[in-house]
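Reference record
================
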Amino acid sequence: MIERITEVNDVLNGFIWGATGLILLIGTGLLMTFCTKFFQVFHIGHWFKQTIGSLFIKNSASTKKTDKKSISQFQALCTALAATVGTGNIAGVAAAIVTGGPGAVFWMWVAAFFGMMTNFSENVLGIFFRRKNSNGEWSGGAMYYLKDGLGRKKGFKTIASVLAVLFACFTILASFGIGNMGQVNKITLNLESAFFSNIDLGTIGGLPVLGLIIGSALVILGGLIILGGLQRIASFAEKVVPFMASAYILGALAIMFINIENVGTMFGAIFKFAFTERAAVGGMVGTVILAMTQGFKRGVFSNEAGLGSSVIVHSSSNVKEPVRQGMWGIFEVFFDTFIVCTMTAIVVLSSGYIDMSTGNPAVEGLSDSTLVSRVFGDAFGIAGEWFIAIAMLLFAFTTVLGWSQYGSKAVEYLFGTRAVKVYKVIFVVMIASGAVMTSSLAWDISDTFNGFMMVPNLIAVIALFPLVAKITKNYVNRKIKHKDEKPMLSYDETLQKEAEEAAATEDADLLTH
């Protein structure tokens, strides 16, 4: 039975994360880039100013909470980054380079460039079609713009409702796997390798005692945060995400300066092997297609643009303008891939473990899962390995927190707000399972469900691209070209009126200050 399930999952996983899925993802990014007239390029100064630049403005709406039921725009970003910046940014990028060569980094950048506008579009639709739940909290995501967006098109009501339910189901299943047990399993293995490699506490009932201890600690910590709701998750993410990302970036920059003589060759190899075949070394022939596939796959897997996941938490922001939260989506992909993933690429490629002349590993039996740790260990000794273990702990644990919110909103959509408490308790308990999990099947299946989230999501994004283009044009005309137009803020007339009044008050406050 297990073998049969594995075979079926391998076929499904190969389909969704293979050429078909990647073409769909990149194609959607291309479509949204063209329909918004390359917004990420021609308005780069504006979206930088409205996102990261706004954090340096006193009383900015980006950091200010307007009520107890929503979170600030920056908190929404940090919570989304908590879920996206994870093990894929370290082990995933290393795997792409080991398998696809230095050229994979270039194609990772390409995927992110177009992924910016996919994520932008998801957030625009998420804010435009969100609603208040029975607790007065914002609820949004692909399930809502499927039902209320695609579902309003003639003949699509039933199929849109079915797709919305499927998306919610896939989200719940993925949240337990890739968003929970898989991440905790990585945390446990890294902590055991870095700090407890010489300690054997034996087993209880066939379960490793050390894993049970680590799992119990994570259950307690996760329970304290997750059961406190989105406000507590966002507050934690707001403090931890900037710290962990900054620490990792500084460490990577230190590695780069230590190996500064290799940097020029490294960037040359990235562009060279993006379009040039790698030499046959040790029976392995590197191809441009392999580099492209690995770059696209790892890039999308890291920043999640197109999966419809991060829009769930972005929709809980206090923002009034859909495009404003869309711009935070652009920054999310930019930061995740162009900054964090690039730092990992620099660490790996400047280390000497990859032969820049052939594009292949310079050491036989190179393990992508421990490569970054090895490079930091070479530079800083045992402290470097400890640093990566702690970084993986923070990256993976915050991913668990972010995915708990994704699953919660999916459960709310299907079963109502009362069921969310039950889901959260189960989610927290399942953390312990990840710490003692030995089979990779659960991880592989959840990876497949994670990929299946993108199908209904991208169907909605593609079908609603004229609306995204219209909302974006409306924003550009009003905020950049200063034309007098009625804003497009919500599909619901009541929410539209409330958002207009709130936006007018917000603009007046800005003028006063």
